[in-house]
């Protein structure tokens, strides 16, 4: 959409953003909040929608964990949980947390808000497509929520939606809900494809003058790589989702072995996307952590290029590991061997990134603000998640662990750092820029510690119950005498009580967030004394972000440069 | 809405709109790759599908291939006209491309109507499920492309946004290439 | 600092016109179209010769050539920046990886210590039907050899 021949695009004074064509009048409330093309507003829309969906995901886990701790009890706020309810709840929890919380907040919200600011331009390259992507996303939210209220209730076939459970209503008992779920997921994919193209094109083409590839902040790079990973991996699943809907509604037999189809095909289509997907959410969170640790250790990133290349390596490798989710599904054992090797290999680049981050902290002048606590907490918790993954990547051990709570604890030790720690790190760090006010650091710390302690007491017991045989997605263990030995139910109870603590302590965050938004101390442009370009703009940035648009003179992590009086060296200041 | 400065920057040397179209194509390659790959693997594992696939109408498929190739010619001639600054000619050529799209869809409707009449429906056999799904997905992209092309042509006629002629052309050529592979898969090497 | 007057394009010029690619001698698009049509005719004629490998070459080999001609001459991919070529090639390679990882399970109906009974039954059933129909392709996967453990990969929920 650019032309080399248009003469009015920019003038030498750089402040043309809207004045060359006359200043806009202030948009109406509706236009400003519901029809905006401004990347910051769209980012906020994604963020608030994602946080709202977090409530739904949290409600679902509350109910089913209560059922685990008190089987058969009438759960306050829900009632008695039937087996079908349980299936719908676990499905809802998984799907919502990944597709409607982690992805929108980490990629769409932070990506939209930060990318133009951090590369020094005034908006995304396609603002109207940006708006469209949010609108499609919102429709996917509505479709998903609608699925809770149709006959049969929400889809109950697990977020992995394996056929024939997901394809045949006679098995899932959620005929309409299943189709609505697939449609919601498909719409969400379209929204993120559109958004991803916007992000990648913007970062490729619209960087500030002087910002070379290696001057781009890591979080921007990582969001771009994540978008590319998403784009490259989701295609087969889009095809697969269409086939699943046809199986559900039109009587086709793509996944039905009695009709010449193959259910394993779905598994492959799903996991070919599903594995890169975890890196799609991992990378933005790691990017956020990189920004925070450099600022609050006042130290440059230990090895920028290494981190970048390992991210590329992780991205590439992530396409070669998917069938480790299918080790006991009946895949050819020779493939299992290959996927075991590649899965163990992929731990190496990720470990490399962790080492670089730790090396960045080492010797730094550390300030344990709330964002820094979340960032360091991310590293510690993700480490546990990573090492427990080794057991699951080895197909021999996985034969025992597959589908037990061991897997569940492993992926919560990776996902919770990503989706909870990463999100809170980003929000507490960029809140001043987004809203022009400071959050309470003290209450932030209280929130952090309650959440972290509770989180570990939820999932460490679950490693043990998993090792002792607790199978996933079982609604009532009282029917399994072996699993009702003394101690087992105690562990489940401990996990549930800890969950209640963790959920309650989120109230602290909600209060901190909203009260600070209106009553917090006013924030200056650069309260953290950071280098990256978003801190050049006012807090919050106006439409057009910068006046004038900045140039870039150096990399993003020039902290504690010897010989300089101040310990930071913003990217936009000429030498 | 004012075009942001961001849209006009061009650090890679590829104009933003064209770069975005190539990303669209990249993501579409994996979508069509997914469905065509799934079809191919099933087809190779199910030799008995030959009994079904023999009923696809090769002449309709070949004619449609010819139609799409010709429409691609018009699309690239439109691009040539736009490059020369002749918006009106570019628009007319884009309209001809759309005419090709419509012809393609009409031929396909007759073809499908005939097949359905003979009992070869979406659910009659998994071969036909793939056939209708893959070609249908392609057809949706034909429709979408034609609609966008009309919008671009409307602007081009007034000599506005001429660079979009090339961009929609690139998308259209991709749609053509997908059919270039669908055709032998479904109609020749049955 | 202010925005410099020229578009920031440190990587060389790329010409003229409506944001166009590098200057190139005018391609004879009609000639290319003519070649494409001839190739189409050849690929349609292929099956009539009757030799299976020849049909496959004319069908898919020609498809690849046609796709290349369209990509090069109509989409001008050869004049694009390299990054575009890398993008497209990467996606194609990914599709190869996908098929490589999936085909042992989906395309084949038996492997190391497993056998897909349902798919085999379906194949046999289909082959027995319509004996009068001419079979244009007959890949030899319909073996009824069953050995070892049967692990039919039905849709177990995992």
Using the 3D structure, state the CATH architecture of chain A: Up-down Bundle
- Name the overall outline of chain C: flat
Taking strands numbered 1, 2, ... along the chain, how are they ordered across the largest sheet of chain A? Answer: 1-2
Average residue pLDDT of chain A: 92
Q: Kindly state the mean pLDDT of chain C as a whole number?
A: 72
Largest sheet of chain A, if any?
Answer: 2 strands, antiparallel
Report the CATH topology name of chain A.
Cytochrome C Oxidase, Chain A
How many strand segments of chain A?
2
Largest sheet of chain C: 2 strands, antiparallel
Quaternary state of the chains: heterotrimer
* Percentage beta strand of chain A: under 5%
CA-based shape of chain A: globular
Number of helices of chain A: 15
Strand content of chain C: under 5%
Computed over alpha carbons, the radius of gyration of chain A is 24 Å
CATH top level of chain A is Mainly Alpha
Largest interface: B-C, 69 and 75 residues
| Gyration radius of chain C, rounded | 25 Å
Regions of chain C with pLDDT < 50 over 5+ consecutive residues? Answer: 1-19, 132-158
Which regions of chain A are unreliable across 5 or more consecutive residues at pLDDT < 50? 1-22
Keywords:
heterotrimer, B: 190 residues, mainly alpha, Four Helix Bundle (Hemerythrin (Met), subunit A), 81% helix, elongated, C: 158 residues, two-stranded antiparallel sheet, 4 helices, disordered N terminus, disordered C terminus
Q: Would you kindly provide a written description of the structure presented here, covering whatever features stand out?
A:
Chain A is mainly α. Helices cover 63% and strands 1% of the residues of chain A. In chain A, a hairpin with a 3-residue loop joins β1 and β2. Chain B has one domain: Cytochrome c oxidase, subunit III, four-helix bundle (Four Helix Bundle (Hemerythrin (Met), subunit A), Up-down Bundle). Chain B contains 7 helices and no strands. Chain B is elongated. With 158 residues, chain C is mostly helical. Chain C has a domain of 99 residues. Chain C is built from 4 helices and 2 strands; from the N terminus they run αααββα. Chains in contact: A-B, A-C, B-C. The interface between B and C is large, with 69 and 75 residues.
């Amino acid at each position: 959409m650019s032309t080399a021949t248009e003469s009015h695009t920019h003038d030498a004074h750089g402040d043309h953003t809207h004045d060359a064509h006359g200043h806009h009048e202030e948009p109406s409330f509706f236009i400003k909040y519901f029809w905006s093309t401004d990347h910051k507003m769209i980012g906020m829309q994604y963020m608030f929608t994602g946080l709202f969906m977090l409530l739904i995901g949290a409600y679902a886990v509350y109910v089913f964990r209560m059922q685990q701790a008190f089987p058969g009890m009438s759960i306050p706020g829900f009632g008695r949980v039937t087996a079908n309810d349980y299936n719908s709840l676990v499905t809802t929890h998984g799907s919502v947390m990944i597709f409607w919380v982690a992805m929108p907040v980490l990629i769409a919200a932070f990506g939209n808000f930060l990318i133009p600011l951090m590369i020094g331009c005034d908006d995304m390259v396609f603002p109207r497509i940006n708006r469209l992507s949010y609108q499609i996303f919102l429709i996917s939210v509505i479709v998903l929520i609608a699925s809770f209220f149709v006959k049969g209730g929400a889809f109950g076939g697990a977020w992995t939606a394996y056929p024939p459970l997901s394809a045949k209503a006679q098995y899932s008992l959620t005929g309409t809900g299943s189709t609505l779920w697939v449609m919601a997921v498909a719409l969400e994919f379209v929204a993120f494809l559109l958004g991803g193209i916007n992000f990648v094109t913007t970062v490729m083409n619209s960087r500030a003058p002087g910002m070379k590839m290696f001057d781009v902040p890591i979080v921007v790079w990582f969001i771009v790589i994540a978008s590319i990973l998403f784009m490259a991996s989701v295609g087969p699943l889009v095809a697969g989702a269409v086939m699943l809907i046809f199986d559900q509604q039109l009587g086709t037999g793509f996944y039905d072995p009695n009709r010449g189809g193959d259910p394993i095909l779905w598994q492959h289509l799903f996991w070919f996307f599903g594995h890169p997907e975890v890196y799609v959410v991992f990378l933005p969170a790691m990017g956020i952590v990189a920004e925070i640790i450099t600022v609050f250790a006042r130290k440059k990133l230990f090895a920028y290029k290494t981190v970048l290349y390992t991210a590329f390596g992780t991205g590439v490798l992530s396409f070669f590991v998917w069938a480790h989710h299918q080790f006991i599904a009946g895949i050819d054992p020779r493939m299992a061997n290959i996927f075991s090797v590649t899965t163990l290999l992929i731990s190496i680049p990720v470990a490399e990134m962790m080492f670089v981050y730790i090396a960045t902290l080492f010797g730094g002048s550390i300030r344990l603000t709330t964002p820094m606590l979340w960032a360091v907490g991310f590293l510690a918790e993700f480490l546990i998640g990573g090492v427990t993954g080794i057991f699951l990547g080895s197909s021999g051990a996985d034969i025992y662990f597959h589908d037990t709570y061991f897997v569940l604890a492993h992926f919560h030790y990776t996902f919770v750092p990503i989706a909870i720690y990463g999100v809170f790190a980003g929000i507490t760090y960029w809140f001043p820029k987004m809203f022009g006010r400071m959050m309470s650091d003290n209450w932030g710390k209280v929130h952090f510690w309650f959440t972290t302690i509770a989180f570990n007491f939820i999932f460490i017991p679950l490693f043990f119950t998993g090792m002792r045989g607790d199978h996933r997605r079982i609604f009532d263990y009282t029917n399994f005498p072996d699993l009702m030995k003394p101690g087992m139910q105690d562990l489940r109870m401990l996990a549930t009580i800890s969950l209640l603590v963790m959920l309650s302590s989120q109230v602290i965050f909600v209060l901190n967030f909203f009260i600070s938004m209106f009553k917090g101390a006013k924030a200056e442009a650069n309260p953290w004394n950071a280098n990256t370009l978003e801190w050049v703009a006012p807090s919050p940035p106006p439409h057009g972000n910068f006046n004038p648009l900045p140039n870039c003179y150096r990399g993003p992590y020039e902290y504690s440069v010897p010989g300089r009086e101040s310990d930071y060296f913003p990217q936009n200041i000429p030498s | 809405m004012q075009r942001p400065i961001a849209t006009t920057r061009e650090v890679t040397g590829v104009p933003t709109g064209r770069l975005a179209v190539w990303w669209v194509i990249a993501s579409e390659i994996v979508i069509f790759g997914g469905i065509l790959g799934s079809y191919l693997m099933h087809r190779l594992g199910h030799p008995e599908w030959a009994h079904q696939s023999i009923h696809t109408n090769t002449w309709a498929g070949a004619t449609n291939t010819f139609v799409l190739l010709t429409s691609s010619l018009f699309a690239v001639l439109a691009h040539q006209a736009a490059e020369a600054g002749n918006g009106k000619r570019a628009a007319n050529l884009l309209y001809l491309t759309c005419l090709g799209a419509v012809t393609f869809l009409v031929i396909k409707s007759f073809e499908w109507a005939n097949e359905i009449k003979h009992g070869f429906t979406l659910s009659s056999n998994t071969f036909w499920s793939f056939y209708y799904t893959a070609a249908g997905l392609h057809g949706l992209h034909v429709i979408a492309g034609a609609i966008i092309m009309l919008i671009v042509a409307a602007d081009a006629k007034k000599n506005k946004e001429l660079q979009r002629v090339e961009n929609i052309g690139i998308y259209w050529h991709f749609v053509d290439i997908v059919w270039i592979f669908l055709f032998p898969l479904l109609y020749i090497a049955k | 600092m202010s925005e410099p007057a020229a578009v920031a394009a440190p990587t060389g010029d790329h010409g003229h016109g409506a944001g166009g690619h590098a200057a190139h001698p005018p391609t004879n698009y009609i000639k290319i179209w003519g070649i494409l049509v001839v190739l189409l005719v050849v690929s349609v004629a292929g099956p009539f010769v009757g030799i299976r490998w020849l049909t496959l070459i004319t069908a898919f080999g020609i498809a690849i050539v046609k796709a290349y001609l369209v990509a090069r001459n109509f989409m001008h991919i050869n004049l694009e920046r390299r990054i575009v070529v890398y993008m497209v090639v990467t996606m194609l390679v990914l599709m190869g990886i996908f098929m490589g990882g999936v085909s042992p399970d989906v395309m084949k109906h038996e492997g190391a210590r497993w056998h897909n009974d349902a798919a085999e039954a379906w194949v046999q059933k289909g082959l027995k039907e319509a004996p009068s129909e001419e079979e244009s392709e007959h890949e030899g996967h319909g073996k009824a050899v069953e050995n070892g453990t049967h692990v039919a990969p039905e849709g177990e929920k995992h």
